[in-house]
Fold:
Amino acid sequence: MASIPTVNVIGAGLAGSEAAWHIANMGVNVRLYEMRPSKMTPAHHTAQFAELVCTNSLRANQLANAAGLLKAEMRQMDSIVMQAAEHHAVPAGGALAVDRDTFSAEITAAITALPNVEIINEEITSLPDGITVVATGPLTAASLAKSIQAFNDEDDLHFLMRPHRF
Structure:
């Protein structure tokens, strides 16, 4: 019988948290790397997963636009982000806005409670071996960005024009 694989997820922001949640709930082991709190970025202030750094708004909630439709699809897929957003929503007209602290705290608690998720709070400087989801976003540490660029044989990454230096 084959052993259960481990999937590396780098980054515990919105995308990385969502990826880790779904992979773990499929019975697959997850090694979730998050450099915070050992290495912070200029935008982050906590060690919580899915920390919203620019705004508390997750944008429009109506089905008549792409953002609202995406949220509806995420709800159908048992999204941890959408579950937490609904539990911690604050009034914002037609937008879905949340209390940042309690939103992130719920996502952090839900993921850390999963028995098949190993949390590693350290900076990753190169891509690990094995199946890996890179969900680091525009605040990717320079060393990891260089590793991703080398792996893809590209000068720039889609989400940023140059690696950030912390």
